[in-house]
Amino acid sequence: MPNNTAIAKRSGTKEKILKVSTTLFSELGYKGASVRKIAREVGIRESAIYNHYKNKEEIFLEVAKGIFSSPFSISSEEMKELALRGKPFLSKFAMQYKILTFDKTNENMFRLLIIELMQNRDLREQFQSEFHDKNIKILSEGFFIMMQNSMIKSSDPMLISYEFISTLFYIRLQVMLLRFDALSTNALSTQFEKHVDFFWESIKV
Question: How far apart are CA 82 and CA 91, in angstroms?
Fold first, then answer.
């Protein structure tokens, strides 16, 4: 059996592959980031990549999972406690979303993923489960807690979640398109906060 040192080394190499791959995919696109280039940047032989991933697509899907993940990086219990505070729940979600939106590497990968979504069924399924379903679930749970505590108007938690996240997603798309044409995004920098203010006023009791 492998010892702890070997396991740690294997885990470290896998993390480095993902980190390097994220950079290369964001800079060169899916086609331009070959397994050979990834291996060279990691500092290992190309054949060693296959000890961790079966092909480039599997690496890409693993990278995409991180980009598509929910902006909430807190536990379920912390999420529930935050929901009991009402508006701060929405503010934290929106601010985490804003950080992802304006992060350069994340932005480039998001642009690439939008393109690849039309060509890769596995990626579409992953987008649905890792981004859409998980985000809607987290938001729905938060809104349900607020309703139970008479903080917001009674309604369909899932529908409210769709309403809240759709604007955030659209702002993120706008940022991506403006930066693609080297245009300023300054006017959008406060839209996340404005959205939270407007949305909270429309649902609070």
Answer: 10
DSSP 126-182: HIIIIIIIHHHHHHHHHHHHHHHTTSB--S-HHHHHHHHHHHHHHHHHHHHHHHHTT
Cα-based distances in Å from 63 to 30, 112, 132, 155, 163: 11, 12, 17, 36, 28
User: Among all chains, which residue has been given the structure tokens 């980031």?
Assistant: 33
Tens-place pLDDT, residues 23-42: 899 888 889 999 999 999 99
User: What's the token pair of residue 109?
Assistant: 């990968």
Give me 49's structure tokens: 């990549």
Chain segment 106-120, per-residue pLDDT in tens: 787 888 888 888 888
